[in-house]
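Dear colleague,

As promised, here are the two records you asked about, laid out in our usual form so they can be pasted straight into your sheet.

NAME FIELD: protein one
SEQUENCE, THEN STRUCTURE:
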Amino acid sequence: MGVMPLLVQPNATFVGRESQLRLLREHARRAHTQAPGTVLVGGDAGVGKSRLVSEFVATLPEGTVFVGGCLQLGVDGLAYAPFTAVLRQFLRERGRAVFEAAAPGGVGEFARLLPELGEVAVERPEGRGILFEQILRLLTQAARDGGVTVVLEDLHWSDSATRDLMVFLVRNLDEPGVQLVATYRSDDLHRTHPLRRLLPELERLPGVHRLRLEPLSRYEVGLQAAAIRGAELTPDEVDGLYRRTDGFPLFVESLAGAVDLSHGERPDVPDHFRDLLLEPLHRLDETAVSVLRVASVGAVSGDVEHEMLYHAAELPERDLEDALHTLVDANVLRAGRTGYRFRHALLRDAVHSELLPGPHARLHLRFAQLIDAYPESVPADRRAAEQAHHFMAAQELPHALQASWWAAVRAGEALAAGEELAMLERVLSLWARVPDARERVQGRTWAEVMSLAAGAALGADRHARALELADEALAVLPHDEDDHTRMVRAVLLRRRGQARAHDPDGGGVLDLVRALELHPPHMPGYGLLLSILARESLLYRVDREPGPDQRRLADLAEAGLTAQELAESALRLAERSDSPGDSCAATDARITLGGLFMSTGDPERGRPMLQEGIRRAAANADPGLEARGAGNLGHFLRELGRHREGLEVLEESLARHAALGWASVHSTFNNQNRAEILFELGDLARAREIVTATRHVGRGSKNRWYIQPVAARTAAAMGDLAAARRAAGPEERSRVLTAQRMNLVQLSALAQLETDLAEGAVDEALDLSEKVLEKVALAAGPGYSWPLVEVMAEAAQLGLDPGRPPGTADRARRVRALAGEVAAAMPVTGPVQRAHAASCAARFAVIDGAEPGRALTAWRTAVTDWERTPMPLYLARARLCAAEWAVRAGDRSGAARDMRQVHAAAVARGAEPLARAAADLARRLGTALSEGAGPPAAPAGLTARETEVARLLAVGSTNAQIAEALFIAPKTASVHVSNILGKLGVANRAAAGARARELGLV
């Protein structure tokens, strides 16, 4: 097996972990042969996590274990430390070929972590997603020949990039072969520690197991100490050792050799582990201790190279070697291939904490200087971060600032935005204390570094922090008229505008427009600003009472700068420029223009423009823009009723990205479009499969906001109301009225209302409908607003059912009026919108009191329009409504024919609520669901009259209201209610109503 320097070396004193060892072995067998899995091994410092994992991996076949450890300076900017070590081991043991196989699009993304692989790829925001996808592919491919186990040590020290990558792997590994084992110190997880919040989320995922190690028992402590001593301990000695170590194997090992363990009892010893760790060092000579102190400074990232230690210790070579032999023999240091590692990180911490201020600063400065003198002694990915750490510890602030800057540059190249931000903030914190700061950051001004930090914060999805940084920089930036300062101010405004796009209070458009006014057109970034503003102006929510952002967009349009003109300006700029940035902006603008034309019903202009944007993005190896273009084209083809064509576009794009190792780039957004198309095609099972596979996205991700509504709508259509409500939870409901994106408002509202109606929560649906209609100008976005208005009309129709409280009926009439205004103002483009408009007209006619014949005609028109679309379940719902009105109009045979078609379509597509509704109509008609069969029996043994009473219970009717609706006495109604409670096995009227809804009676 390959060298695993991050794990402790096994010896004969391993006791007390037999069950945990069996669990890890069995988990490895399942992960390697059945399904991938993850084990999270937690426990307090010194409890034996690393030792357990060492014993476990020693049982695995040679060449199948790959190990990486998080470094204590990870929070200082060193990104992906454990995965870099794992990849470097792959390169050492399996060669370059495995990287080339995992990255058919080129190994440039891998080179961000392993510079020895070659040139870093062109910087692009999607590079991080591609890197993650390629690491996933590398592990998956490497595991196909017998499986691999990847060990990630000390996750409590992990940086955010490492955590993100680990979560990505846990959620996306889907082939047998890969086992992930991660260790962490549970006692280091303070209340705000990010791992403390992440672990429960990981534990809920399939294939993830959490293993907590507890201290050894008194008996096991005795066994371990006896093995170390070579002789049994007396009961008093075991008692003394157990009390002093609290059963922690590391400290048992430290104290087991003491001469007398039965005296000098100190009950509070577990709170002072440092003393326990340092106690064995008292037996070492002064030279060995001195070398150990030097090593504690150099081993900040785990290992210290022999060459670095030699130069830092400033001892004759023979004396240094003698001291190192002493330390290795004493089991204080472990020797690796070219350097040394402390037996335990806690021991390194304890030794380091003993340094006096003078030696502490001097040694850190010495190691910082040695990194310059011997750069090959530290891997390139760690060099800048380690040097920054040493200079800061030495209080050499100018050098600390400069090293932090280069660590930020390195983090940016590795697409670790969180670590880039941390290092840039350190640069900023030192700025005022370093006179020549600008010269040390490649000539950047303070404001430019602030702007870069704001950009890194945006990349890390820390929008509030980006806003703070931009605000602070803008407040002190001089109002000089030179082009450079104007450009810096404009970029800061642009980044603040992008941050404010996530703020319910808005203001993002104001910043983007002001940036456009300031940015010199001939300076870099102007084309990008044009394309961003064009895109944002189309996406922005439109309210009935325009806010400042909307008014500013209106002013811009009046001045001739519509979204179309902004995008065309970006195209014209690119024609005159050789800048790659302008070319990228032009591609973005071309996609925006194509979408604009498609949305207004002009596919002859829009589709070629989108296709050209996709082609250019692919030629420029820009997967983000390519995916955006494909997503937009698929979306608008769906809106125009060309679902199969849209699905083909999306699936081709996703397959191409998967083949190139780019599958994670925008896959959530495009899978949302794909699932939405399948949902409308009636393929609910496939839509739900895609949603389920895609929903594992970090909670802060805006992509998750788009997939959740589709998850809720699909679950509601299939009758899984619990899953629908989980997807359409309180957080998603609040987003309906706070989101700045128009499409997100519409999608979220659709999901909430469809879930409300599936649950029978008519009042809740009416309340939300009224709020949305009063606030948002839905007519500005007809694509999603037509289905939304139809659902609102359905809620209004249900709110006017007999037996509803007066307040509900009043709100229903208000919703009908507002929804009617929106429908009257909206254009109708394509067969899908025409069919939605027909359904809306039919519902409005029913609400307005149309007699049965007229209502039936309206619904027959809607059925005809839905027949011209590829949306079978929408057709089935319209046909069911037509059947209901056919009964009232006296056409029972036509109603039965329609009902059977509805039932067959619903059953074939897994739409259980629709199938139950069709079956209920069959019961009321007394007819069969299919030719030659008998009518379906009433559920739960209810009689026909009890079924009618149960329906009214479900809408909250009192006995008096039931009696009035059914022309019976209130006392008779009361008897029916009592019988229903008994047959349904429920305790009260509310529960009976809920059960009636479950049975499809409503």
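NAME FIELD: protein two
SEQUENCE, THEN STRUCTURE:
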Amino acid sequence: MSVFTGWRAALRIARRDTLRAKGRSALVVAMIAVPVLGVTALDVTYRSAYPTTAERLTAELGSADALFRDPRSGPIEQLPDGEMYMSVDEEAVPDESGPAIDIGTTFPKGSRAIDIRSAPADVTTAYGITNTDIFEIRTSDKMVRGMVDLVRGSYPHGAGEVAATEPFLKSTGLDVGSTTTVRNSGRKYRITGVVEKPDALKTEALYADPGAVLAPWKADAKNDKKVLPPNERPVQWLVDGPAGAGVTWPDILRANESGVLVKSRQVVLDPPPDSEVPLAKKGYQSYVGGSDELSVAVVTVVAMAILEIVLLAGPAFAVGARRSRRQLGLLGTCGGDRRHVRAVVLGGGLVLGGVGAVTGAVAGIGLTAVLRPILENLVGHRFVSLELRPLELLGIAAFGLVTGLLAAFAPAIVASRQSVLESLTGRRGVRRSSRVLPILGCCVLAVGTGVAVYGGTTGDSGLVSGGSIVAELGLLACIPVLVGLLGRIGRRLPLSPRMALRDAARNRGRTAPAVAAVMAAVAGSVAVATYTSSSTAENEFNYVPTMTQGTVLLSSSYSAEADVAERLPRARPAVERSLATTGRRADYRRVWAGSDCNVYESESCGSLEMVVPAGKDHACPLTGKGAKALAARLSADEHKELMRSPACLTRLMPSGIFNSDMSSIIVADEALLDVYAKFSDPAAAEALAAGTPVLLNKTYAKNGEVTIKAVHRYSEKDKENRAQHPGKPRTTTAKLKVYVAPEKYAATPGISMVMPQRTAERLGLHTSPAGSVYTAAHPPTDAELQRARAAIDQAGGGLWVQAESGPYKMEDTMLVILTLLAGLVTLGAASITTGLAKADAEADLNTLSAVGAPPGVRRKLSGFQCMVVALTGVVLGTLAGLVPAVALRLVDLRDALKTMRAEPMESAYTPIVLPWSTIGLLVVGVPLLAGLLAMAFTRSRLALARRAG
């Protein structure tokens, strides 16, 4: 018999065995298909989530050939991509107030163009008033397709109609058919449809036809001085070039001579040589992004996914081979030797691996299609299409097939070594565990961890992924010994869990592969979750708040109107009714010297500042001379301490929240310390009552005193104050005794010192009521803020409500996708693995019933058996997943230190934060789910079984 004939017979036997044991075969197929599904979905999503250059151009230009705009810089030179340009006169300053260029004269002859105009505006909502962007563009024009698309309803046509984005409708409580009023002009508009920007799905905006909103608004402002004109942005033009010609590079050069910047689809996709680009001749090059390159994190997780496929498929074929041992024994009685037994088992691997690979690939594509809307909302833009790369998908499927063969290899060898008698009688025999394997596993685990950590410190993605895989393999080798220890810890447990632990320890050949499969699935989830939680903690630490968390600010926004003091008392009850404020209110006043810079030009107004004393104790060592030399010697933790020192916080914390200048001095009483700074100190309250300022940042103090420098300059237009202070500007310095707050209050956003009113008057400073601060029960919602805006408007307007929104979540697209897919694969793999373990233990359950055990004991034993497998796998998987996560954070630390040593004020803080919620969910949820599934699918009655003899 030829080799091919032998394999044909083996494949035929494997196919028949697959069809005969449909349930077991389905589990084996699922074990291979689940990780293939995850990798396929990851590949398709990754390729679809990052748009190509042509797709990005469509999102920016629609179906037009080019976008023309005036940067107000005079004649310019630009690069072909339109992202970078420079004025021909390098000393020219952009003139925003100068006359606009007639851009239409720069279009190629025979072109068609539509303009894009926009401005922010206050509009009414279902709750109150909000501020949003209004775009005037003919959205029904075919040139806009791909840039702005209709989702539902109809396009706006003419005056009185607008279209809105879904986020705008969601935040305002409006819908198609609702009416909104542009407060600035008083005109009403009906919402006719919902549109979206495919490249920015979270945009909140309104769209109207040209001339529908801004032109009447400007006309009203011209006729009524109480109506402020729109703060209109520079006009842009979408241009369709002459048929068959488009907008060429010579067209762009001619437009550049007139000072017009052009982005042409044709030129970006097929740029001219550098010899024809004036700016390129000067050495300027376009920025080349790295979105097409896989990050170290993605490479590592994909490598672990490959190992996961192998580890998941292995126990599946091991169970299959054991369930078919009688059939393999019959093969031996018919003259088959070990070679034939191996061929049959490997044939099963080929058949089931092929079916699993194809099923996983197809299911992965289908899953991505089903989850596409969710994924698009997560990444914030539409996928132009599901990009399927046949070679990559074929490679993933082929790898699944090869994995099936490799996973069946070890069970094939084990099955071929069994004697015919053992196979026919169903006895598995007892084999002692290797004493060398655990020692070798510990060594491999240590070496793999060391390699991964070294790769993290050097930034080598190959070492990180390779070391992580080696460490996981080392932990894999230790599983049999760890499983053997389980039987010893169940001596005092109730019957079912005790039997489950002892069964796991006695049948290590069945338990260890199942534990390894769960471990592999959980390791990927833990690695992604740890990396994500650590990155989130880093972003939260680096975020500089504009206000104290949990507070709401009602401010006049430096209004120059004289009736602010009258409007504040009317606005405060409106805010208190609209927002969830708690506790008492803290009022504050602005303080300044000379003429108010909010009213008069900076050249003719005064200034106020606190003088930083001389000496290194009062200067931030991360700025100035020697900062880079110091940064080169600092560790990340040392740099973190310096960054949060009071001296460096003067550079880091924002100013201008309560005052328009940089002094961060406000006039208030002890209520503001309590409500805003969260500083409740009777001594500080007594100091303020006695006329002594409270200093929150000790950097400004020396020997308990602060130096205040004031320039009393009065504008000629400030007639009242100018009459009282004639003559030249005068500069005064005053030393004040201050109460210095503890060091932690130096991080209070926007305030460095709280000054009593009488102290400001003694120094000859001017003050004015500016606002109030409240404690909020929760961050204000969009609806609450809109209600507050409307209530303030009814009280006279001119005031604003602000709240701290917290750090913006900059989520990496691939990390979000990996987190979702890792969780899906973990749940599926754990369920299927425990199902296989249950199927393999069916004979033991039958024996239990034969000796009179009630059905409840069978169910409990089956449930606890699967819980033992799942819990052990989850714990080991958590340990295995921490290795790549820590190594990846070391890569980030290396990059952060490099950046910090170039720019010392850049943070190098790179924490490693364990995702305890995720780990807790895995430790509790996965074993509990596995146990409940096993109990649910365990039959109460004894199943009839054939005799072995």
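A couple of things worth noting about protein two: The first strand starts at residue 66 and ends at 69. The longest helix spans residues 855-902.

Best,
R.
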